[in-house]
Amino acid sequence: MRIGMVGLGKMGANMAARLVEHGHEVVGFDLDPDSVVRAEADGVEGASSVDDLVARLEPPRVVWLMVPAGKPVDSLMSQLLPILAPGDVIVDGGNSNYRDTLRRSEACAAAGCHLVDVGVSGGVWGRTEGYSLMVGGDADVVARLRPLFEALAPRPDEGWGRTGPTGSGHFVKMVHNGIEYGLMQAYAEGFAILEAKEEFDLDLAGVAAIWQRGSVIRSWLLDLARLALEENPDMEGIAPYVPDSGEGRWTVFEAIELDVAAPVIALSLMQRIESRDELEFSDRLVAALRHQFGGHAVKREG
To answer: How far is C-alpha 228 from the geometric centre of its chain's CA atoms?
Structure first.
């Protein structure tokens, strides 16, 4: 199959390369010309613009977007829809808010095109190990794109599937990332407790290795935790600052709207936000309040 790929950052370039390795033809474009050159080294056919990319494809076209959520997707949609033909397909493989996906699907339908939303998980390991793909869209359109999903997934019949109508793929990926927040926070807190028990002088990477086989808490994240601890046992040089892509927030908002209790995901999000508070104003205020009502000593800086 011949498709267009817009967005050749690390994830997009790796996905394009994997498709090429599995016999597909990929025409790629990125705003960064160097990214296009690097992708060409992996067998991707470079395009000079979005217009050039579309011109190199035969109807019915498939244009796969791997760009940041929000305005970049809207900007690309506004460029693509006037130059695409009825029956063409746009695939949004980024972490878009599913509500935006539903809105964009209506615009695509008005132009006679189809929008397929694909939540992609796999990170930097996906090129060799395969990606988990959560696919939302019309069943017949998803069936048409099946060869692409089979090539990108760990195995043709594993690691991917149609989750439902358009919007469902991004919705499932949103919740996936919320769960990821909670899992990472639990591992981090557990290893912090182990690290604090100084009298045992625990080898944290060694503990992770024990847990990797047979334990009920074994997982790919634990595998990655072991690698991180082997490379940097004391986490030296890493700032305690954890950003978030937005999907954890969306998961919490959705839980509230649906009246579903999700305390672990919500608290893991709050912990990430707290990590960015360099002034730690809330902690300072708590200390001041303890001094006000109970005369408790306040630890001074410096």
So the answer is: 20
pTM over 0.85: yes
Phi, psi of 21, rounded to the nearest 5 degrees: -60, -25
Rounded to the nearest 10 degrees, the angle between the axes of helix 220-231 and helix 204-211 is 160
Q: Is the dihedral of CA 22, 227, 187, 213 positive or negative?
A: positive
Per-residue pLDDT tens for 141-171?
999 999 999 999 999 999 999 999 999 999 9
| SS3 annotation, the chain | CEEEEECCCHHHHHHHHHHHHCCCEEEEECCCHHHHHHHHCCCCEECCCHHHHHHCCCCCCEEEECCCCCHHHHHHHHHHCCCCCCCCEEEECCCCCHHHHHHHHHHHHHCCCEEEEEEEECHHHHHHHCCEEEEECCHHHHHHCHHHHHHHCCECCECEEEEECCCHHHHHHHHHHHHHHHHHHHHHHHHHHHHHCHHHCCCHHHHHHHHCCCCCCCCHHHHHHHHHHHHCCCCCCCCCCCCCCCHHHHHHHHHHHCCCCCHHHHHHHHHHHHHCCCCCHHHHHHHHHHHHHHCCCCCCCC
Spatial CB neighbours of 167, under 8 Å, sequence gap ≥ 6 = 98, 99, 101, 102, 105, 117, 136
Q: Alpha carbon of 114 to those of 70, 83, 136: distances in Å?
A: 19, 14, 11
Write a three-state SS string for 75-92: HHHHHHCCCCCCCCEEEE
Sign of CA dihedral 57, 61, 64, 67: positive
Active-site positions read 173, 180
Per-residue pLDDT tens over the stretch 8-44: 999 999 999 999 999 999 999 999 999 999 999 999 9
